[in-house]
Every structure is written in structure tokens, then in C-alpha cells.
Amino acid sequence: MSTAPAVGVFALQGDVREHVHVLEALGARTRPVRRAADLAGLDGIVLPGGESSVMDRLAGIMGLKAPLADAVRGGLPAYGTCAGMIMLAAGIENPAPGQGSLGVLDVTVRRNAFGTQVDSFEADLAVPAVSADPVHAVFIRAPAVVRVGAGVEVLAAVPASRAAGADDDGAPAADLPVAVRAGHVTATSFHPEVTGDWSFHREFLRGL
Ligand SMILES: NC(=O)CC[C@H](N)C(=O)O
């Protein structure tokens, strides 16, 4: 697109500032999204990392949840990181009490999937669909995708041995998807907004 795209950043909770910084550095205009009216005229929306149960509750209170879900279902490109991935997901295996989601990406996620004691780690991931070079990924109490619906592309995965309780039964398990895309909706378990590896933001903006 010839003018800078207008990208909304869900701003009721989470690492909003980090996404705004990356998006503006890459040439987008940004707008914090806190209520339904903030969605007007956007070319895309980013859902940050943070705490998905709080995001879900606040989005409900602010009357943003249904309009945001409708906008994404209607074609508004969306990118969610970590808690943002959980917000986009159709299902949450282990929701907090009363927690729901926008239900716009046909995956089921497991919150806090990567370990109980040391639950943050970094990894260099091969993501050929997004970058020729490995993408440096930071996982912070991150979700994993445990069900991938039809039409959802797995862009990157990590060995299941990373998962919480992976050693418990000794059974070999499949890799856990940590980056997925279904048409105009992309989600990562990790936080490119904090690493300086902006491949996913670049790819998202390219599609607007
Ligand atoms: N870094 C994050 O966004 C953590 C996500 C958080 N564990 C949640 O359930 O929402």
C-alpha cells in the first residue's frame, strides 16, 4: 500500500509499547485500541503479550470483544504474540476461571505450556515461510498449540521435550507448534517485539 498502514494495537493490557515501537520503526502508523470505535479504518491489529485472562475480561467489560472478533472474522488482518495468541484462539485447554477468547483462529492452545520451574527460554527457530534466517524467539510463560484446525499452517514448532511435564510418561510426542497462520490471522507463542528480530512484524505489514 502506498501510504503507511494504520495498525491498531490492543491496549487494554500487555506489552503495547514494544509493539508500537516495532511497528512505527517499520513505517506503520499505530493506534491504541481500547474500545470498539478505535477499530474504525484500521488496516490491521496486533494483540500483545501479557496476561490473556485479564485481556479477555477487560475486552468484555469495555465492549470490545465482540466487535474485535467480528472485525477479524470480517477480514481485518491480525497478529497475536503469546497472550495475544491465546486471545485469537478458538479454544483454550486450561483457561483461567471464566476465561474465553475471540475465537478467530482455529487452534486450541495450552497456556503456560513450557515448564513450571524454568518457564522462560530462548531458541532460534527455522521459520522458512517468514525469514530465510532463523528467527530468535523468546518464550515467557508461553502457550503452545495443541490442536491445529484445517486450513491452519504451522510456521514453526519446538520439540515437545520443552513442554511442562514432557518427561512424565516417557512417551514420545510430536513437536509443539509455536507459530501458526490461517490466511490473515497469524499468531506466535513467542515475543518478537522484545528480541529485535522483526521478521514477523515485517511479514505482517507486507500483507496489509
Ligand atoms: N508472555 C505472555 O504473554 C504470557 C501469557 C500468559 N501466560 C497468559 O496466559 O496469558
UniProtKB/TrEMBL annotation:
<feature type="active site" description="Nucleophile">
    <location>
        <position position="82"/>
    </location>
</feature>
<comment type="similarity">
    <text>Belongs to the glutaminase PdxT/SNO family.</text>
</comment>
<feature type="binding site">
    <location>
        <begin position="140"/>
        <end position="141"/>
    </location>
    <ligand>
        <name>L-glutamine</name>
    </ligand>
</feature>
<keyword id="KW-0456">Lyase</keyword>
<dbReference type="GO" id="GO:0006543">
    <property type="term" value="P:L-glutamine catabolic process"/>
</dbReference>
<protein>
    <recommendedName>
        <fullName>Pyridoxal 5'-phosphate synthase subunit PdxT</fullName>
        <ecNumber>4.3.3.6</ecNumber>
        <ecNumber>3.5.1.2</ecNumber>
    </recommendedName>
</protein>
<keyword id="KW-0663">Pyridoxal phosphate</keyword>
<dbReference type="InterPro" id="IPR029062">
    <property type="entry name" value="Class_I_gatase-like"/>
</dbReference>
<dbReference type="GO" id="GO:0005829">
    <property type="term" value="C:cytosol"/>
</dbReference>
<comment type="pathway">
    <text>Cofactor biosynthesis; pyridoxal 5'-phosphate biosynthesis.</text>
</comment>
<feature type="binding site">
    <location>
        <position position="111"/>
    </location>
    <ligand>
        <name>L-glutamine</name>
    </ligand>
</feature>
<feature type="active site" description="Charge relay system">
    <location>
        <position position="193"/>
    </location>
</feature>
<dbReference type="GO" id="GO:0042823">
    <property type="term" value="P:pyridoxal phosphate biosynthetic process"/>
</dbReference>
<dbReference type="InterPro" id="IPR021196">
    <property type="entry name" value="PdxT/SNO_CS"/>
</dbReference>
<keyword id="KW-0315">Glutamine amidotransferase</keyword>
<dbReference type="GO" id="GO:0036381">
    <property type="term" value="F:pyridoxal 5'-phosphate synthase (glutamine hydrolysing) activity"/>
</dbReference>
<keyword id="KW-0378">Hydrolase</keyword>
<comment type="function">
    <text>Catalyzes the hydrolysis of glutamine to glutamate and ammonia as part of the biosynthesis of pyridoxal 5'-phosphate. The resulting ammonia molecule is channeled to the active site of PdxS.</text>
</comment>
<comment type="subunit">
    <text>In the presence of PdxS, forms a dodecamer of heterodimers. Only shows activity in the heterodimer.</text>
</comment>
<dbReference type="Pfam" id="PF01174">
    <property type="entry name" value="SNO"/>
</dbReference>
<dbReference type="GO" id="GO:1903600">
    <property type="term" value="C:glutaminase complex"/>
</dbReference>
<dbReference type="GO" id="GO:0004359">
    <property type="term" value="F:glutaminase activity"/>
</dbReference>
<dbReference type="GO" id="GO:0008614">
    <property type="term" value="P:pyridoxine metabolic process"/>
</dbReference>
<feature type="binding site">
    <location>
        <begin position="50"/>
        <end position="52"/>
    </location>
    <ligand>
        <name>L-glutamine</name>
    </ligand>
</feature>
<feature type="active site" description="Charge relay system">
    <location>
        <position position="191"/>
    </location>
</feature>
<dbReference type="InterPro" id="IPR002161">
    <property type="entry name" value="PdxT/SNO"/>
</dbReference>
